[in-house]
Amino acid sequence: MKVNRLIKGGLVASVGDKVRVLSGKGGQPPRDGVVTAVSGALLRITWSTGEETSLIPGPGAVTVVGRARTPVKKPSKASEAKKKATVTPKRTKRSD
């Protein structure tokens, strides 16, 4: 996990990184979001409000503050039943 990594001089955020962008307006709080796509220097960010933005950040404009948690998928009951129903036959040696 890369924490507090500034994006400048060739360091770029990766998909899944939590980022913080300082507001361009005085007195506004910073925005927090998750990087959902990276294409060269272009970042696609989904903000904590649910909005999405594509931006090319300037040096020091974006700070990586951690990795987003991915929800753990529980196996469905159907896939569990399928696993239990599948039987692998034993191999036997043939005597010639």
Question: Can you give a write-up of this model?
Answer:
There is one protein chain. With 96 residues, the protein is mostly beta strands. The protein has a domain at 5-69: SH3 type barrels (Roll), CATH 2.30.30. Helix content is 9%, strand content 33%. It contains 1 helix and 6 strands; from the N terminus they run ββββββα. It has one helix spanning 77-85; strands at 5-6, 17-21, 31-39, 42-47, 52-55, 62-67. Strands 1-6-2-3-4-5 form a 6-stranded antiparallel sheet, with no helix packed on it. Strand 3 and strand 4 (42-47) form a beta hairpin. The chain starts with a strand and ends in an 11-residue tail after the last helix. Residues 1-10 have low confidence and may be disordered.
Approximate helicity band? under 10%
Q: Structural class of the secondary elements?
A: mainly beta
- Major sheet strand order: 1-6-2-3-4-5
- Chain-averaged pLDDT: 75
List keywords for this structure.
1 helix, mainly beta, SH3 type barrels, 96 residues, 33% strand, 6-stranded antiparallel beta sheet
